[in-house]
Amino acid sequence: MKTRPLGRWQLAARRKPLEAVVADGERAGLHRRLGAGSLLVLGVANILGAGIYVVTGTAAASFAGPAVVLAFVLAALACGFTGLCYAELSSVIPVSGSAYSYCQVTLGEGAAWALAWMIILEYLLAAAAVAAGFSGYLVSLLGDLQVHVPAAWATSTVTAAQQAGHTRLDFSGGLNAVAALAVAAAAAVQIAGVGRSALANLVLVLVKIAVLLAFVAVGAMFVDAANWRPFLPANEGGFAYGWPGVMRAAAMLFFAYLGFETVSMAAAEARQPRRDVPIGILGSLVVCTVLYITAGVVLTGLVPFRELGVPDPVALAVDRIGWPGFAVLIKIGALTGLGSVLLANAYGASRISLSIARDGLLPSFFARVHPRLGTPWLASVAFGTASALLAALLPIDILGDLICLGIASAFIVVCVAVMWLRSTRPELRGGFRVPLGGVRIGRCWIGVVPVLGIVMCLAMIAPVLGDMLGQARRGDILPAVLLLAYVLAGAAVYLGYGQRRARRHLQDPPR
């Protein structure tokens, strides 16, 4: 008797066996060179940078005031709960692909593709946002050295300003070529090989931590406590200050913690992934949260918060100190910090595309690993080009909002995946399990940590969608149009290409 072929929705619901995911990771051809220390450096490299050097200024000036430190705490809590779930999954499923691979095992091919498409967006936009900040610091540093870059070469085509607690968009006529070149340079270093880029990351991380600590130590001597009053400014409408503003700022700062997810992307290149990956994830989160909060306190103490809405807030703060030599040093440190984030972000983008292409959902050239360098070099070229264009055209405000939606979607799936695996495969044991436990309702395990992670991620999404809706009502529909166009393009790629070419070693869904 002939078996009736599966329809589109049934194909989309097929799940990939856990054993097949692990086997694919072993056949990927990537070199297992990274230990716990390298993974910790990778996480810190990707986290520590944009959060303090770029988006803190806008988050404080437009939304939270000095209470931006509370926004850092809220964003860290959301990432912390999810990070614990990532740590358990990466110890059970030690492969590159991160949330995409976890979703394949739990929710099926269609959901995994939708999630992967959002993660790709997340990495593209994150690189562009960091590069925009890099451009601001580089132009400021060159100005100190009497080298003046034309404003049109360092200004995105679309600009954003805050008005009555909402974002207003305009067109500048510029093109941020400096940011685009920064993305291209990071992609080139990443193509050169993970070993060399890991060494570069180590140097950059050590430099940027030293410089950030110097900023805190010296800046603390010049802090004016009056700048911290009021600590939580009264709400002025919309998301301008008050607790709505703090939540809006937390959503903006959310993407600054993206680095720990990149650590899980490196599981296929870790020497002992079941032990080393959880150390890298949780260690980098703790280190960077402490540094972010400390630096944020000093930053808002040096400059009145309403003046911090610039792409290079730390540069503005050190200029207020009045030590020109120290200002140059700090700006160099900011550039090294943002440079390491660009390197780590390029790493994550190429590895997620490698996993997707291995399954046939993207063209095979995304999975092509260079025989000598051992890196997916064509994927790095493709993502570097796309991120460079975004960096040249869009401002940090739009980039950060769209990134938040992508990150939160991935994080929610990771939290669900932990509960699904505990419910359906309770015999699986990795090197790490989320704490605090949970309850069983029938066969389903409901964990305290995963549920808290889901709730916190939804709390990050809500103010972004609210602000985006407000923009659309005022006629600023660009963010909504970009997001809708990207989602529709993803559906077209999956239905028109990926679903027909996907490797079919998946488990059939119930008929």
How would you portray this structure in words?
This protein has 18 helices and 4 strands. It has 511 residues and is mainly alpha-helical. The two termini are 16 Å apart. 57% of the residues are buried.
Brief account:
By secondary structure, the protein is mostly helical.
Cα separation of the termini = 16 Å
Low-confidence stretches: 505-511
Number of helical elements: 18
Number of strands: 4
Describe the secondary structure blueprint for this structure.
Blueprint lengths: L7 H5 L5 H10 L8 H12 L2 H15 L3 H25 L6 H8 L2 H36 L13 E6 L2 E6 L5 H15 L2 H26 L22 H12 L5 H7 L7 H30 L10 H9 L2 H35 L18 H17 L2 H29 L13 E4 L2 E4 H26 L4 H24 L10
Antiparallel strand pairs: 1-2, 3-4
Key traits:
single chain; mainly alpha; 4 strands
